[in-house]
Specification:
By secondary structure, this protein is α+β, with helices and mostly antiparallel strands. It has helices spanning 5-17, 22-28, 35-47, 68-72, 88-103, 113-124, 161-172, 187-199, 214-219, 235-238, 249-260, and strands at residues 20-21, 51-56, 62-66, 109-112, 137-143, 146-154, 179-184, 208-213, 225-226, 233-234. The strands form 3 sheets. It has a 5-stranded mixed sheet, with helices on both faces. A 3-stranded antiparallel sheet has the order 1-3-2, sandwiched between helices.
């Protein structure tokens, strides 16, 4: 079987995103090609051990990742080799959110948790990682004409209050973040998180906290509400979308290098933070 340019692009995308569903691959890589043709090609690539199945969603849709062999063919890395079944729903929804925010020009760059964790390990070593916490993702976005760093936390179920307080106290101290943006499924979680946030008010107050509801963002990331902005505003009114003639790819490298030296991490949580030490 001869590998096509489209196959190579698929391997690059799988390296960038970690995994993609069949429908996401159809949209991003195989645009306007019949789904039966796409499925046939994916099975061929799987047979050649160039891609592999991560899991099957409840909708019966397959999640795919690139193998070492596939990654080597385009000189990229395999970002994740192991996927927790308990976190699969969270990781897939986070990936879907990333694709929407990138497509809408809100996320000028997106650094996922596993990359932050890897950078922090290289910087601090195993012993230095004990009390570090990291976000689900770190994005670079434009606010009032200035590029800002925002930590993204997707919470489908709430952490216990002790862990949440630890996480939010770190965010309260983060002087190099515009804020932490919680993507949550329901209003009651807003009240719970905000109560703990206020309980941590003895920490520095240079960081903001934002909330958006997952279903609203997935319908339209530009018009969904960004709660705790007074007066209430839409995401696209606060985080300025990228102009149509510019691609986020052109900005991502510099933004990621800018953020790399600031990253910290945790062993047990996937929560904050950027380095607030001078």
């Amino acid at each position: 079987m001869q590998t096509t340019q489209r196959d190579l692009e698929l391997f690059r995308r799988l390296s960038k995103y970690g995994m993609l569903s069949t429908q996401q691959i159809a949209k991003i890589v195989f645009n306007e090609i019949a789904l039966t043709t796409i499925l046939r090609r994916l099975r061929l690539l799987e047979d050649k051990k160039l891609i592999t199945r991560v899991a099957t969603l409840p909708s019966h849709e397959v999640l795919w990742s690139v193998t070492e062999r596939g990654a080597e063919s385009v000189s990229v890395s395999v970002p994740k080799r192991h996927w927790s079944k308990n976190l699969l729903e969270h990781d897939y929804k986070l990936l879907s959110l990333r694709l929407l925010l990138e497509e809408g020009g809100i996320a000028r760059s997106w650094t996922p948790e596993h990359e932050i964790r890897s950078m922090a390990f290289r910087k601090y070593g195993l012993r230095g990682m004990k009390d570090r916490v990291i976000p689900d993702a770190l994005i670079s976005t434009c606010v009032k004409g200035k590029m800002e760093s925002v930590a993204v936390e997707m919470e489908l179920t709430l952490k216990n209050e002790t862990k949440l307080k630890k996480v939010l106290s770190h965010y309260r101290e983060a002087n190099d973040l515009l804020g932490v943006w919680y993507i949550i499924p329901r209003k009651s979680m807003t009240n719970q998180i905000h109560k703990v946030w206020n309980d941590c008010r003895h920490f520095a107050k240079g960081t903001n906290i934002f909330y958006s509801y997952l279903d609203d963002v997935m319908k339209n990331p530009l018009t969904a509400n960004l709660i705790s902005i007074e007066p209430l505003r839409k995401i696209g009114e606060v985080f300025t979308p990228l102009p149509a003639q510019v691609t986020a790819h052109h900005l991502s490298t510099l933004d990621e290098k800018k953020n790399e030296s600031k990253v910290e991490l945790t062993k047990e949580n996937h929560a904050p933070i950027l380095n607030n030490a001078s």
